[in-house]
Amino acid sequence: MAARLQLGHLVAAFLATAILGTLGAVAWSAGGLGALSEWDWRAVRFTLWQAALSATLSALLAVPVARALARRRFRGRGLLVTLLGAPFILPVIVAIMGLIAVFGRNGAVNEALRALGLPEMVIYGWQGVILAHVFLNLPLSVRLILQGWQAIPAERFRLAASLDFAPCDIARHLERPMLRAVLPGVWLAVFLVCLTSFTVALALGGGPRATTVELAIYQAFRFDFDLGRAASLGLVQIGLCVAAALVARRIVVPAAFGAGLDARHGPPAPGGWRLGADALVITLAAGFLLWPMGAVITTGLPRIPALPADVWDAAWRSVVMAVASALLSVGACLALALTIAAGRARWVEAAGMLPLIASPLVLGTGLFILLRGVASPQQMALPVTVAVNAAMALPFGLRALIPAAQALRADYDRLALSLDLRGLARLRLLTLPRLARPLGFAGGLAAALAMGDLGVITLFASDQPTLPLKLYQLMNGYRMADAAAASVLLMILSFGLFWLFDRGGRLGA
Amino acid sequence: MRTALALLLMATPVAAQDRVLTVYAEDYIASEWGPGPAIKEGFEAFCDCTLRFVTGDILPRILMEGANTQADVVFGLNTDVLARARASGLFAPHGQDTSDMSLPIAWDDPTFLPYNWGETAFVYDTTRLENPPASFAELLEAEDIRIVIQDPRSSISGLALLFWVKQVYGDEAGAAWSQLAPKVLTVTRGWSESYGMFTSGEADMVLSYTTSPAYHIAAEDDVTKRAAIFPEGHYFMTEVAGQLAGSDQPELAQAFMDWIVTPEFQQVVPLANWSLPAALPEDQWPQVMRDLPRPDTTLFYSEDEAEALRQPALDEWLRAFN
Hints:
Chain A: Keywords: Cell membrane, Membrane, Transmembrane, Transmembrane helix, Transport. Chain A: Its main location: membrane. The structure holds two protein chains of two kinds. Chain A is mostly helical. Chain A has one domain (2-28, 42-257, 273-296, 303-508): MetI-like (MetI-like fold), CATH 1.10.3720.10. In chain A, helix 17 runs antiparallel to helix 20 (480-508). Chain A has helices spanning 2-30, 38-71, 77-84, 92-103, 108-115, 126-151, 154-162, 167-195, 199-204, 213-222, 227-251, 273-300, 309-342, 346-357, 360-371, 377-418, 423-452, 457-460, 467-476, 480-508. Chain B is built from 15 helices and twelve strands. By secondary structure, chain B is of the alpha/beta class. In chain B, strands 1, 2, 3, 4, 5, 6, 7, 8, 9, 10, 11 and 12 form a twelve-stranded mixed β-sheet that branches. Chain B folds into two domains: 4-117 and 238-290, Periplasmic binding protein-like II (D-Maltodextrin-Binding Protein, domain 2); 118-235 and 295-321, Periplasmic binding protein-like II (D-Maltodextrin-Binding Protein, domain 2). In chain B, helix 8 (156-169) crosses helix 9 and helix 8 (156-169) packs across helix 15 (303-321). At the A-B interface, helix 4, helix 9, helix 10, helix 15 and helix 18 of A face helix 3, strand 2, helix 5, strand 7 and helix 10 of B.
């Protein structure tokens, strides 16, 4: 046990050093932090309010969807829940294409509005940024809240039924306490994701009013080569995230339902108008989340066979890197979660969340500065990309793994001790089988996110491009139709990897 | 095992191995849909050596690596950011005669060698926009036109637009931006996102280059994409190559500079990069390039002017949109 504890501490220490150290390296290399301009502060304000609004909307809209999914059983429900998760792992550029295809000036929605003689909706502006962020993050919110509903012991619902609770009583005594425990975490997760948004805000933001801190970092780095300002902005970004984390922590009140048997029954499914409402909510959510993806698929799919060989090479390279990232991420995730479950070091959990709030650009630049004496950037490009992607996926994996690891410890620790089950044997016989599901989910998420990532590799860039990089190269070569096909390929591979890992986790359990 | 590996390495021909030219290039240049393969193939035949492309954001990369850089040549810098590259003191003279280049401006820079050029322009589709604005003034006045442009803080073409407007409107640039702002559908991070929005029909016009229609004509047989030519003039953009003073392959780097100005390079590369040749008489240009409508007036800031104007012009732009 002691050995594994140290491993988790080690991983956490390594993460904290890497992320804070790279920021320090950038600042040190610049000879100190740089001053921020008026425009930088505007970017901070815009970043804050769009992230807060995106997070609030995503979390609130997810509640009815998660409730409907929790209490209804229908054919294809499992598939639908999996598919609804897809936008979260969609590469941003693909998501933008899909949203424009549906909600853009020439999109299906505006076609319909025009046909009906109604005013058109405008996707460009802050509303487009929020729309895209809700599209990308609603799935994550639904998934997390759904888990909250499923975590309410079935016994409680049965007790409620025997006490003849009306739906509003159930809401008051069971659902609201659960939401109070779950929602701040959901809100925080989405807030943090939106905080570091860059491409979405620029493409759909309508203009420089929609500037995020991440763009300011990019500008400081790419055009001004002002590393001091880049480091300052990176620090501001981390500061915002820490503040948000503290706020969210204050609101969280543990729901404390107590333990229950592992029965997989959802909450009761009331009939009448509530049935209709649930059906409507599920249909709307499915339409909103799946339609844009369908639009991208119909444009790009037919051209996939005609894609040049180099795209396939890049796709293969991306898959290998994504799998490596996923395995690395799962390993680190497991070490961290087991240490956190042992409950002795809160800083370990904080370190595990750090990657979410680090700017990939600052991280990449810092690594570049730190490693330049050790190896050439070309040699580092692929390993660094794998490592950074593994780290970036950690916080999401941890969210899924920590509760499971805590439950494992509470339920089986004494048994394992009495059997003197330790070390690798304990890992193989107890830990891995019991945690297979969240591990599979974490691995799938890590693989899919790594698949779609563009960030770090452009800085280190080598002669071995990944699929997202190829996608941009196709666009830069005017080959928009091939780019659409490559983006569908990217989407299929991302989702396929996620599905395989997730599925693998379920088979093992 | 290690001995076997060493023997294997020794067995491979050494000549090609130690004659490697490392070229840092902007990402799009080295892709197989850019001029990369033509450059690699052509130069390797020319020099009997190996050319290795390293792609990415080359300017920050060079500045970070400083004297330790592995680059022998950089390929694809733009004049609007040259001041920074030059200030690094990392570059050696290119050694070419530039007195007679096929550029609309005189070029007497001994360090950076232009290899292709073009001008910024708004590109439209004749099937969707029947009466495109015929001047910058008309564009500012136009109603019901939606354009997409690129952010000057993240894109080189976006930066060129900033200078274009500054050249045309001078002190009135801020007012011109305010007039243009309502017509701007959105601002994207790079050229490719903008162009994608244009081709998918989201925008009526896109900030691109006078040479963009050449791609559609030559590769797609599509003559509906045109660049609107404005009498006020268009902003000149050229891409340059430079050799590193600290290169451990100075002869190869020099050979690369020599090769850039050969007709072979000049005739092939522009067709892969969709831009005009910098060192080729106009009557030898590829036909599709010769047929393109060209603006009468070329606008241009020297790199020092561009460097001095960048921040004030950016502030003007930001104010107009905020």
